[in-house]
Amino acid sequence: MRIHIATDHAGLEFSTQLQHHLAEQGHEVVDHGPLDYEPLDDYPAFCIRAAQAVVRDQAAGIEALGIVFGGSGNGEQIAANKVRGIRAALVWSIATAELAREHNDANVIAIGARQHTFEQVTSFIDRFVETPFSNEERHVRRIGQIAAFEIDGSLEPDPRAATGAPAGGESADEIDPEAG
Description:
Layout lengths: L1 E5 L5 H13 L3 E4 L12 H16 L4 E7 L3 H7 L7 E3 L3 H9 L5 E5 L5 H13 L6 H16 L19 H4 L5
Parallel strand pairs: 1-2, 1-3, 3-5, 4-5
């Protein structure tokens, strides 16, 4: 499998170790992170490039996943999720790694390099890579809804709309401009 990785300065040491770990398992690793340690570098471009590469590979029929690192993994997950077709999950345990693939068909995971040991990180990644998507109808349906919103903004109908109740937590004053 091809695995695209990216990090900023916070995960650079993990990234280097991880590349060796994944290569030893027979994976092709493509690094989209910095070449050298720069304490003020910015993660968005690195993570977005890795996410774009995952989408390109998957569209070409190449089995590919992505892993992005940072101090907490939060910003890296947000950046990766800006790429259409990416489902990036923040992973902090074996269970979240497994469920990210099994239920959400996540194609990128984000991990906080400052939050875990290298052994923990590799166990999360190994579980993520080895876990297949379940293809259960409910999960396929939900992923389809996310993809539809990403493409054209469409959402399932709001069940409150048929009852006349305020939708989305809005108050009646926000809905009725005549209300006073």
